[in-house]
Structures are given as structure tokens and as C-alpha cells.
Amino acid sequence: MDDKMMEDIPEVYEKLKEATDRLQFNMASDLQTGSLLKTLVASKPSGRILELGTGTGLATSWIINGMDERARLVTVENNELLLDIARGALQDKRIEFVLADGYEWIQNYSGEKFDLVFADAMPGKYELFEETIKMVKEGGFYIIDDMLPQPNWPEGHSKKVEGLIIELEGRNDIMLTKLNWSTGIIIVTKIKLETNE
Ligand SMILES: C[S@@+](CC[C@H](N)C(=O)[O-])C[C@H]1O[C@@H](n2cnc3c(N)ncnc32)[C@H](O)[C@@H]1O
């Protein structure tokens, strides 16, 4: 099996990748992460999906290909230049592009919970994690990538990564699987807390 051979790369992907490379944007999600997201999203008919950190829309292009007609995606990004690339290339009525600071957006969010959250920015992952995991429905997924050392990690970032893994492994309201694959992925499923009644 060659896990990098993919027949289902989104049509718009190449265009987005060219724009991403032109900008020398070095935080883009890779093909394997995209492929996994598509497959997981497809398990959520009529799903409500959240992406924190749209970037130029590479993962977004995979996510929408996993969504059915009734599914909806909210994707949040604070960099207008990046978001405009995604918005321009991915014109789809199922997507709500939000230009906002993720910290404010998470703290102000009071809507319905999500079936899958791809947390790909500092807010929602290393910060405001508690608020973000609360947004995931029982049986829903919380997905993070870049958990293996990456060339673009700033000084001290590995400590944050270790801290997040410890936090995740200590919780009783989730189940998780760590994958030393792609950039290092953790798949988290939110579970129903048992009560003693
Ligand atoms: C790892 S990249 C996202 C990559 C993207 N998901 C993809 O598929 O290529 C993280 C993104 O989060 C954005 N970001 C960083 N801080 C943010 C904040 N406070 N609010 C919203 N977005 C933020 C960055 O501009 C960047 O585009």
C-alpha cells in the first residue's frame, strides 16, 4: 500500500497549492491530513463541521468533498489575504468563511455544537482548548495535526505539544488515537460521561 497515492485529490487543490507556494505559506496541511479529514467528515451526514485556521483552504477543499449536500462548514481565519484565496477558489454555499480572531470567535460562540472540529490554529488547540472541546457533540471528532516535530516550530513549541498530549490523555470525556503518520495526528472522539445515577 502506498498511502501517498490518492485518486481523490480535490480538483481545486492544485490551484490552492500554487497560491500557497507563491505566498511561501509554510503552515499548510498536507495531503494525508486532508484525506483523513474527508473520510471522517463523510461519516457525519448533515454534519456541522468547524475548521479553526483556514489558511489558504487546502484542508477545506478536502473537507467539503467529504460533506453531503446538507452538511455545513464554518471555517475561521484571521488573515484576510489567506482567507481571500480560500474564499475565491472554494465557492460553495455550504461554507461559511469567517474573518475573525479565533480567540474572540471561540469565546463568543453560543451556537449549536459541531460533529467534527479540525483545530488547526493556536486558539482551539493550545489555547482555549476547554472552550473548544465543549463545542464538540458526543460522538463527534476533534482532530489535530502537526503533533510530530515540524521545521516551522518556534522555540519552545514542543513543550506545548507535550502539554496538550498530557491534557488529552488525562481526560475522561474523550477517547483518542495518536498517529505517527502525516505530520502527527490525534483523532479524538468525545464520549458521553457516565453518571452514577
Ligand atoms: C496551520 S495553519 C492552517 C492551515 C490550513 N488548515 C490548511 O489546510 O492549510 C494555521 C492558520 O491559523 C491562522 N491563525 C493564527 N492565529 C489565528 C487566530 N488568532 N485566529 C484565527 N486564525 C489564526 C493562521 O493565519 C494560519 O492560516
3D structure, described in words:
- With 197 residues, the chain is α/β, with parallel strands linked by helices.
- It contains seven helices and seven strands.
- α4 links the parallel β2 (72-77) and β3 (95-99).
- α1 (13-22) packs antiparallel against α4 and α2 (31-41) packs parallel to α3.
- It is globular, with a radius of gyration of 16 Å.
- The termini are far apart.
- The mean pLDDT is 96.
- S-adenosylmethionine (SAM) binds at residues 27-29, 53-55, 58-59, 76-79, 82, 101-103, 120-123.
Write the layout of secondary structure elements.
Elements: H1 13-22, H2 31-41, E1 48-52, H3 58-66, E2 72-77, H4 80-89, E3 95-99, H5 102-108, E4 114-119, H6 129-133, E5 136-144, H7 157-169, E6 174-179, E7 185-190
Parallel strand pairs: 1-2, 1-4, 2-3, 4-5
Antiparallel strand pairs: 5-7, 6-7
Mean pLDDT metric? 96
Main sheet specs: 7 strands, mixed
Q: What is Rg?
A: 16 Å
What is the element string, with H for helices and E for strands?
HHEHEHEHEHEHEE
Helix content: 25-40%
C-alpha termini separation: 48 Å
User: How are the strands of the biggest sheet laid out side by side?
Assistant: 3-2-1-4-5-7-6
Number of helices: 7
> What does the overall shape look like?
globular
Bound molecules: S-adenosylmethionine
Structural class designation = alpha/beta
**What proportion strand?**
15-25%
Q: How many strands in all?
A: 7
Uncertain residue segments: none
Short description:
The protein has helices spanning 13-22, 31-41, 58-66, 80-89, 102-108, 129-133, 157-169; strands spanning 48-52, 72-77, 95-99, 114-119, 136-144, 174-179, 185-190. With 197 residues, the protein is an alpha/beta fold.
